């Protein structure tokens, strides 16, 4: 097993058959001990966060596969907190795609002159560059095409997939009385035909979910969704 990448919340290994193994850590993003899914630093360590993140990821990826969304998921080993996935080629050095249903986080910090906290946003999609040193700047479709990161056709597909995935996750949470405010996804090109594929994870670590107007911490979200 070869180490490929040491990330903030996961370690990536290459397996002998060419697949990747993602090892989920108990580290979560945030600052000064406070969890924040939008942060670019490890803010704290929560015992059990890795396994819960993986259990949620497995749950959502299996659900999405069933609905016909192309994902990198192969299988998961909850005990070891590892997931086997198909390797994907990144767009540039990686993009994050955010789907927003209510105004919070960086959206509110940027557009606070025109938006109120919690305001409905109708599944608004935006793309940011994975660039920790530059605080993950938002980037437009034209800039992505001009810089050779993503073609216009790929952008269209990325946006369409993001809205589909966001809607599936939102509906699933709603069944448990949970309100999805926003979700952050990652995609890459995978398989022989380099199909645009959902990669990385879907857990409490990359979404903001609320119940009765109160924010739900990642571990609590796992409990609520995975119980029964
Ligand atoms: N199927 C895949 N193929 C290649 N890279 C992947 C795949 N799934 C996830 N990744 C990458 O692996 C890394 C996972 O570790 P993580 O701790 O989340 O990293 P980061 O600190 O960059 O967010 C991310 O950089 C993610 O883009
Ligand atoms: Mg990450």
From TrEMBL:
GO terms for molecular function: ATP binding; phosphoribosylaminoimidazolesuccinocarboxamide synthase activity. Gene3D superfamilies: ATP-grasp fold, B domain (3.30.470.20), Phosphorylase Kinase, domain 1 (3.30.200.20). InterPro entries: SAICAR_synt/ADE2_N, SAICAR_synthetase. It comes from the Bacteria. Pathway: Purine metabolism; IMP biosynthesis via de novo pathway; 5-amino-1-(5-phospho-D-ribosyl)imidazole-4-carboxamide from 5-amino-1-(5-phospho-D-ribosyl)imidazole-4-carboxylate: step 1/2. Residues 4-215 form the SAICAR synthetase/ADE2 N-terminal domain. GO terms for biological process: 'de novo' IMP biosynthetic process. Keywords: ATP-binding, Ligase, Nucleotide-binding, Purine biosynthesis. It is an enzyme of class 6 (ligase). Its EC number is 6.3.2.6. Belongs to the SAICAR synthetase family. This is Phosphoribosylaminoimidazole-succinocarboxamide synthase. It comes from Siminovitchia fortis.
